[in-house]
Fold this sequence. Notes:
Helix content: under 10%
Shape: globular
Number of strands: 9
Number of helices: 0
Radius of gyration: 14 Å
Structural class: mainly beta
Order of helices and strands: EEEEEEEEE
Strand content: 35-45%
Amino acid sequence: DAGHVTVTLPAAEAGLRITIQVWKSGSSKNLIVLSPAATAFFKGGFAWLDQSIASGAIDMTTSSDNDSNMRVTMADPEIGTRVEFVSDGTVWYLSGTVIDATEPAWADS
């Protein structure tokens, strides 16, 4: 796990905004973002740019289940990945762009 980064968001608070922008010097480094409480789950998702396709980047979207996911794992996000988490005091709303050969994975814990 050396080099992987796990970010645990603070307790949900209305108007709180967290932005994560990826810059890295190595490969195969996971970025994991966790909500600190099951009741402060994620709503929304990201634009996902898959650059592993031989013919060029493929644009897709990926999103949480909007009612229980509180963990998102990006397997090896590239420079240019920028994601934002905004709280309404109860849940975290997500947006941004993930550049990664693997679709972000969503989980309940």
